[in-house]
Amino acid sequence: MKKIINLTVTLILVMNTAIAQQKDIDNPFFSKYGTPYEVPNFDKIKPEHFMPAYEKGMAEQRNAIEKIVNNKEKPTFQNTIEALEYSNALLEKVASVFGNQSSMNTSKELQQIAKELSPKLSKHRDDIMLNAKLFERIKSVYDNRNSITANSKSKGIDQKQEVGLNPEQKKLIEEIYKDFIRSGANVADDKKEALRNINKELSLLSLQFGENTLKEDNSWKLFIENESDLAGLPESIKQAMALDAKKAGQEGKWLVTLHKSSWIPFLQYAENRELRKQVYTGWMNRGNNGNEFDNNKNVAKMASLRVKKANLLGYNSWASYILEDNMAKTPEGANDLLMNLWNRALPIAKKEVAEMQKMVDAENGNFKLASWDWWYYTEKVRKAKYDLDEEELRPYFEINNVRNGMFEVIGKLYGIKFIERKDIPTPHPDAIAFEVQENNGMHIGIFFMDFHPRESKRGGAWMSSYRKQSKKEGQMITPIITNVLNFTKPTADKPALLSFDEVETMYHEIGHGLHGLLSNTTYNQLSGTSVPRDFVELPSQIMEHWAGEPQVLKMYAKHYKTGEVISDELIEKLKASSRFNQGFITIEYLAASLLDLKWHTLTTDELQNPVAFEKNAMDEIGLIDEIIPRYKSGYFNHIFSGGYSAGYYAYIWAAVLDADAFKAFQETGDIFNQSKAKLFRDHVLSKGGTEDPMILYKKFRGQEPKIEALLEKRGLN
Hints:
The chain is α+β, with helices and mostly antiparallel strands. It has four domains: 2-151 and 162-186, Neurolysin, domain 3; 220-284, no CATH class; 296-388 and 584-640, Orthogonal Bundle (Neurolysin, domain 3); 395-576, Orthogonal Bundle (Neurolysin, domain 3). It has 29 helices and eleven strands. It has helices at 2-26, 47-70, 77-85, 89-104, 108-129, 132-143, 167-182, 189-219, 235-247, 260-269, 273-284, 296-312, 318-323, 331-362, 374-386, 390-393, 399-414, 500-517, 533-536, 538-547, 550-556, 568-576, 582-600, 610-621, 637-640, 650-666, 674-685, 693-701, 708-714, and strands at residues 149-153, 160-164, 221-224, 254-257, 416-420, 432-438, 443-450, 462-467, 470-472, 475-477, 480-484. A five-stranded mixed β-sheet has the order 5-6-7-11-8. Helix 2 (47-70) runs parallel beside helix 5, helix 14 packs across helix 15 and helix 23 packs across helix 24 (610-621). The longest helix is centred in the middle third of the chain and has 32 residues, at 331-362. The relative contact order is 0.10.
């Protein structure tokens, strides 16, 4: 009997092992994908694959860390720094897919996995960053980085030789050491548990904030039944609204949603002021409706916890902690730039208000201009001053023409080409895959574009990676980059026709894409967009300059029906109006940036009332009633669910850089100047975070950036 029991137990163990092994075989993350360029095999990756892959990835990294810690040999670059850098290969592989899918194609299953994963990943990271023995080895390498050597293979010689560390290796040591310090490696042991608890809670709150915002975006809908309420709207906008209503099961009605491509055109053209107010109020009250998606408690708690964490790490505020690692260095540095521009832009915004109020009065409107009137009367003033209606431009901005023209611009600048590939898996059926090559045919990477909104995709536009560029053992690991957008959708009888703002957004995001695609670094941690927040927007924002250049417009702005190239007259109108509404555009952005800094220069962990806090912050800087911050606290994803806390100012900081950088091209008389483009590729796009950003900028420009180009561009001088 005993033998039978033992045999049964053995059989069960064998069967369980076989089942576990089969699950490993079936999990796409545990082997090569077997696709062109090892693009993730999206069709085969299912929700049930993520958790086992994460668990295995964390286990592999824990084992690698143990080997580093228990190594009896003296700490070296290879056995400590490089070993740590390469310890998370599987974890990075699964996290890149999960993170991207959660943003652009989420589901209840993925959201539940994220909630289960969040505390596990927080603990896993803390276990590494607060590992005293590991930090001791890292510190040893850091302290000796100027005298330490690394193994290297000379060209044509097989045996390894000892050489001094190169600048990128030294930079990697410095970044890893700094990361450990900023993660609490030097925090007293009796306070480390408190730090762990804060990290865990912050990760969950950030996750909840983003989920709430997405649910608010998707749940708010305005169905319009009477066509008379659509007075003023162009036919193309009405058709898009009708199609959206039909898809929502309300055929015969018209639908407005909180997707940017829906609510902005409605506010621009709808004559019905009450409906404009209703739509705008729905947009600006997201996360502040007292419902299940309300974010006020999340905001207050996150701000409080960030103060506590900053204090534990030795800083008086979260902004002081964050900005130490950015180009601005201090909250005061960021604030000074913002207020300098604020004081220049606010008088211009007030003039814009006065101009629109005159138009209201001339129409016997008998009301004071409000924030929900701004888009509507902006369009009226634009039409009156420049004889330009944005709807005149849309037929020339068919999405494929814009995209192909943009690729041509990039080809002229950097000598690369984009080739559509239908044999490569895509992360969603809506996405398009391109292989990026040098002009000589050498493979650079894979690039996805995903253009239109859907309920599973969060709002906005962004670039991300499924695999970052790096090198290992001399072999190039090529990048897999994606641009995710939320542009105007095609209608039943028209292709997707973009606004010029959407055109600029496409150029912006591919700038980030180029930063990832053209990276040429050795280490993943320093690759591509792994640079300070106030430098990362330079490659994206400089690309926007080309979008509106007359010779570039002639390349892509072609009427979708006739193929007619945009006229010189329309180009001149667009150029003449380029400084139009800059008071509003600048002030609404600066207001959000200053709100971000206000939240994160708090030195008390006392819970705030977000509505009252925000009002006080805006009253303090003198924000006029007719403008609200571009992002209010309840839906400010950049700072409460993204990576821009105490860093939203980065867009305007980088705007100084990008205006000055584009001026370098203009000064040559050729916006496609090959010498300048090569300098920009060599010293900005390819370098990632391997050097100090100001050093990189000066290598490109030959001098530090000057603010004058930005002031001129925006008419603020």
